[in-house]
UniProtKB/TrEMBL annotation:
Record's keyword terms, sorted: Endoplasmic reticulum, Glycosyltransferase, GPI-anchor biosynthesis, Membrane, Transferase, Transmembrane, Transmembrane helix
Top-level taxon of origin: Eukaryota
Region annotated Disordered, chain positions: 372-392
Lineage of producing organism: Eukaryota, Fungi, Dikarya, Ascomycota, Pezizomycotina
Subcellular location: Endoplasmic reticulum membrane
Metabolic or biological pathway, per its Swiss-Prot or TrEMBL entry: Glycolipid biosynthesis; glycosylphosphatidylinositol-anchor biosynthesis
Protein's job: Mannosyltransferase involved in glycosylphosphatidylinositol-anchor biosynthesis.
Name of protein: GPI mannosyltransferase 2
GO biological process: GPI anchor biosynthetic process
Family, per entry: Belongs to the PIGV family.
């Protein structure tokens, strides 16, 4: 492989500083787009909830407030209008339960803190808009660093620094774009999901670390922590429950045909930890539904007094989320497959391809990463006992297994988006999944070398990835203008 460019080599010397600089640069670009984009081109809903003429507070303060209020108005679009009102007032209407309970609770708490700490009165609901923007951007920044560290765990060899840096850079440049700047939940969802993946990798390494006497208890703590992160992610966005597939696969594998060289205590701790983690992931979806059931069906708080019980209360699975998505948002199997939505499917096609192609790479490839295998240490003074055919004895085996498991949630998401969701939202939902970043990063760094060995040409895969990167950046910028102007699609 030819030597890397000087700028790239310099970036690898201080990757965190480079990622921070790139993140701040993208924020400057997005804020500029938001401020310069003409408004009221399509919808005036934002102006119904935000005061159009906030009170002036002196020359300098007035100019500052004018910029801040204008930026807030340009970033409060589409679902953000619901997020802001729910954060301020709570869930008052049935259809509002389509929006993440965990996200609106956090926006509400931070918004009330801003009101309490602010030296001057800020007209409502601006504090909740500020809260959403603050948490969204801070979460995205932290998720960039978590993804970098997660990738360093899975790619431990020296070249893992380059893979980690490119993967984290792609997360900064994700096509989610303005949705990671505005008061939306994608940034927080990515942070919680990546933290869950990080803890899950740590738990798996602890389980297979034969030299660690505390491996059984340590891995159980890590895996329960991963379950807790994915539970919170599920409260923020319902698709967070898909991360439970990772836990389910490992649980079934361990119960059915686990690693026989493990002591029964260590294996039992693994099974118990996975079981608790799986339950916790499920609670991320169940708890908000239980709160809604108490409000609309049980009438415990009195809010349902004098109101007829809703039809979804008596269903076998009394889920308000599934009900309002079906009734108010027309979400369902093949419902989006209409001639008028063909342009939206075309907009979603690139990221759908990337998600499915990278998932196939992870699941079907025997070595879906470049790091050299290294045998894990064995207990001192003991010979290695016979193991089951599925036993994982090298970091190569473990990392391959992890990448395959992490590919399953994003593959299921791509299938659901194509068949049942408003398909264009896959461009922002994809930001919270990791395998496609790894696939892009490895292809950018290694595809040319591999394919030149075969036919002396640059190779089709590298060309596809170059096109994909350009599309991600270009789409994010165009989408930012459309978002700030309140123009579809969203």
């Amino acid at each position: 492989m030819p030597p890397p460019p000087t700028l790239f080599h310099h970036s690898l010397q201080s990757p965190w500083l480079t990622l921070l600089s790139l993140f701040l640069l993208t924020r400057l670009v997005y804020f500029t787009i938001a401020l310069l984009t003409p408004s009221r081109a399509y919808d005036s809903s934002t102006n119904l909830i935000l005061p159009s003429q906030p009170p002036p507070q002196g020359d300098a303060s007035g100019i500052c407030w004018s910029l801040v209020s204008k930026l807030s108005e340009r970033l409060t679009r589409w679902d953000a209008i619901y997020f802001v009102k729910i954060a301020e007032q709570g869930y008052l209407r049935e259809q509002e339960w389509a929006f993440g309970w965990g996200w609106t609770r956090i926006m509400g708490a931070v918004g009330r803190a801003i009101i309490h700490l602010s030296p001057s009165d800020i007209p409502n609901p601006y504090p909740y808009v500020f809260a959403g923007i603050l948490v969204a951007n801070l979460s995205h920044l932290l998720s960039v660093f978590v993804l970098y560290n997660l990738t360093r765990l899975v790619y431990p060899a020296q070249d893992g620094v380059a893979v980690s840096f490119v993967a984290a850079t792609m997360h900064v440049l994700t096509p989610a774009g303005m949705f990671l700047v505005a008061p939306y939940s994608e940034g927080l969802f990515a942070l919680l999901s990546f933290l869950g993946y990080y803890l899950y990798v740590r738990s798996t390494y602890a389980y297979y670390s034969y030299s660690s006497r505390a491996g059984g208890l340590e891995q159980a703590v890590w895996v329960v922590g991963a379950g807790a992160m994915w539970m919170l992610a599920g409260m923020v966005r319902s698709n967070g429950v898909l991360n439970g597939v990772v836990v389910l696969v490992d649980f079934v594998k361990e119960v059915w045909d686990g690693v026989l060289i493990m002591s029964w205590r260590r294996r039992l701790a693994r099974i118990a930890g996975l079981g608790v983690a799986g339950v916790m992931v499920g609670l991320g979806l169940i708890v908000p539904q239980g709160i809604a059931w108490m409000q609309f069906c049980a009438g415990k708080d009195g809010k349902g007094a004098g109101v007829a019980m809703r039809e979804w209360c008596s269903r076998t699975v009394p889920s308000i989320y599934l009900y309002v998505q079906d009734k108010y948002w027309n979400v369902g199997f093949l419902r989006y497959w209409t001639a008028g939505n063909i342009p939206l499917f075309l907009l979603a096609a690139p990221i759908l391809y990337i998600l499915t192609r990278s998932s196939a790479w992870a699941i079907l490839n025997d070595t879906p990463f470049s790091s050299s295998p290294s045998t894990l240490s064995q207990p001192a003074g003991k010979s290695k006992r016979p193991s089951a055919p599925t036993a994982l004895t090298t970091s190569h085996d473990i990392n391959t297994s992890l990448i395959r498991a992490f590919a399953l949630p994003q593959l299921i998401l791509a299938i659901l988006a194509f068949t049942s969701y408003h398909v264009q939202i896959i461009n922002r939902l994809s930001s919270g999944y990791v395998v496609w970043y790894w696939w892009l990063a490895q292809t950018i760094l290694y595809a040319q070398e591999e394919e030149e060995k075969q036919d002396g040409s640059e190779g089709r895969r590298r060309k596809v990835v170059r096109w994909a990167v350009r599309w991600c950046v270009g789409y994010a910028l165009v989408q930012g203008v459309l978002f700030a102007g309140f123009l579809p699609p969203a």
